[in-house]
Specification:
Blueprint (H helix, E strand, L loop, with lengths): L5 E2 L1 H10 L8 E3 L5 E2 L1 H16 L5 E3 L3 H9 L11
Parallel strand pairs: 1-3, 2-4
Helix pairs in contact: 1-2
């Protein structure tokens, strides 16, 4: 699954609804993200939960440095595999 350029509270509900419930979004491409807030972290955490429930691994690729910093600030960088 490829994340959009913008993922803020305004887009969060639609983005969460787009996550496949079967956990098949176990690989998330965050390389397009340019404008985001903690909603992006919430989406990644939900994608990870769904993937784990389906017995899948989970990976985030292309995370911009600011997303990595935000994840670190909230203490979820290691959980999401974003620890540098």
């Amino acid at each position: 699954m490829k994340l959009p350029v913008t993922l803020t509270l305004d887009q969060a509900a639609a983005a969460l609804a787009a996550l496949p419930a079967d956990g098949s979004a176990h690989a998330i491409d965050a390389s397009a993200l340019r404008e985001f807030d903690t909603s992006a972290l919430a989406l990644l955490l939900q994608a990870k939960r769904l993937a784990q429930a389906a017995g899948q691994g989970f990976e985030v690729t292309g995370a911009p440095p600011k997303l990595q910093q935000l994840a670190q600030l909230y203490g979820v960088d290691e959980l999401l595999g974003l620890a540098g």
